[in-house]
Amino acid sequence: MITNKDLKRCSQQVFTYSAQYQAPFYGREKSMIEMENKTAKLNSGEILIISQPLGTGKTFLVNHMIAEERIGVPRGSSFLTAKAVAGNPELMKQYPGDILIIDEVDIKTKYENLLNGMNHLQEYLDDSGKKAIVIGDFSLKDPKLSSCLRDQQTLYEFEQIDRDFLRGVLNQRFQTFMKEYLDADFCIENVIDPELIDYLSPAWMKMVNSFRGVFSLLQSVVNNDKYIRYNNDKAYLEFSMFKEYLAADEDLDLDEEVQYEFLQILREYLRSEFPKGAGITRGFTVDELYQLAQMGGIDIEYDNFADDILYPLAIAELLISTGIPTYDNNQFIRRPAPFVPSLKLLLSVF
Amino acid sequence: MSKENFIYWKEIVGLEDTDFPQMIPLDESNIHKASIVSTRLLPIRNRISTNNLVSIQVQPGWGATTLYKKIVSDLEKDHMRLLINFDFEKNELDGSLTEEEFEFRTKWKLANGIADIMREVPMQQTYMYEVFDFEDTGSTPWIGHLRKKKKRLTECQNNAKDFYSEFKFFDKLSIVDCVNFFLANFQIQCVFMYLFPRKIAEDNLLELVGIIKNKYDGMNITPAAMREVYISTPKIFKMIKNVYTRPFYEIPYKRYSAAEMYSMLVSSYKNDDVMFSSVNDVFDEEFINRAYNERLSMVKIMEKVTKIIEDSLEGDTANIPYKLTISEKSEV
């Protein structure tokens, strides 16, 4: 039996969200096969693009492929970043082997550095005949950025987080890091409420759900003495704990009254049309959300709606962007529509 | 008329050279005057001791900088901890910070901090000598060598090339290796504390987040070796969390009460040179009670207090009291 004490002691390993504890790799068989094949077939100057949301395991996948020697990159190679390449293209010359790996091509980097980084990369590949794997978020789907890279292959297979995938990963983590505490007939539902697993892996969030987000949340709740006390009680993570934990962040820190008003309208809408998120199949567009705002009596110009209402709600983790970041009007639009409601928002309307 | 009367009153009580009732900004030399109750500070210290990642979220205009300085001052007295602090309010994040510069600044602070600790606390000699390349030839004692190194540190504070040339240990080891080394051999934990300004361009903030991620994410940091403490507004923290989610222990730092603000005022104006022993002798707390509004910043509240004071001082100078107390007619 796993006790609360055991779980608290092991939470950093079991719910690790980074490479720190060498968590075992799980699943993504199709991704690995496609990556291996495409990398093997890369010609001089060609690039394999891995474009997926932040925290979904892209770097983990590539590191695993290197460790398993399934792609021709020397073990122990560290990755270049878009920003580093933008600032100092000479770094690429020092990279071992034939295949460069450029990571962090995402919204954490200034657009100018993304652009310069990709341009420098293409120049270097042209000169050297080398190949590259470029890892980033949906910024790589922005035509202005992707057009910097000429001969591209895209990794299409990248298993998204669904209930079975999450369940499998959690099970494996417990088996790896807490083996001595497990009963012979252990299954993940012994320690995690099935409703919670469902909640953490909703179908409508598949496209943007991240392991980093899920494991950070699990670790945060387990580390909080209010929910899991340091004692010998049987450890059991319940959906209600997470609901309470997320609801505890009452101060949403929205600046304007109109943002709160829209949030209220959105909550009512979700409660009536998509109870518990059922029925959400895609993100909401700006037009749809603007129409909702208008019907709710919010008086705001369409041109200001995204910047003044939607973007702050995205920053406050109430809406999640599923769009392609782009550069427009001298601004890097990092969180464009369409939007899906976050787990936090949806919980508040349960 | 009331503005002039206020100036006159300040002269009577010896506050003419001050911005009273605005709080006196505290710096490293007088941070001990910061009147922050231990019921606020103790939970923060506990969390830093227990959690690898701590986020202290202070509403804009509610004393983040003073809190930061106070925590820095407290942690600096703790010889079991090495504080590496970055005040991004003072040293603005303007987009010019590169990963190399960040690494240099961090390593310089590690070197400087560990040198200070070594002067005060006896530790395992072999490892101390390794950090500062000491060779015991009999000509210079260890403490003399350390003093020289400290002097050199000051000289190369802004020169990465000189620093790495002089301090080979820090050239050879990564930041992560350094913190692990300090824990393993000196039982010293490194606390990395960052104060974020309340207003900052998203580009510059996220670039810093990217640098931090590249330096530490997935690295083999011994859990007890390192703590990260972020002090920011809730909004800034959400922007950080949005692009780099980690299990921070989040501490929403409640706004100070009117009583606490009055206590701060009394504490910050405590001075042997003034004509009164305490602000309480010349100024009633009811002014702050009247002006207090959570939706305003502390500065704005004190501006409101100024207005209330001035309104209460309408009339003949001869009627101005030594101790200001609120009268029924003092409304804003």
Give a count of the beta strands of chain A, DSSP E runs of length 2 or more.
9
Helix and strand composition category of chain A = alpha/beta
Derived from helix and strand composition plus strand pairing, the structural class of chain B reads alpha/beta
Number of domains of chain A: 3
Mean pLDDT of chain B: 92
Largest sheet of chain B: 5 strands, parallel
| Strand count of chain B | 5
| CATH topology group of the largest domain in chain A | Rossmann fold
What's the shape of chain B? elongated
First-residue to last-residue Cα separation of chain A: 32 Å
Mean pLDDT of chain A: 93
Number of helices of chain B: 14
What brief labels describe this structure?
heterodimer, A: 350 residues, alpha/beta, 3 domains, 14 helices, 43% helix, B: 332 residues, 2 domains, 49% helix, elongated
Describe the structure concisely for a colleague.
The complex is a heterodimer of chains A (350) and B (332). Chain A has 350 residues and is of the alpha/beta class.
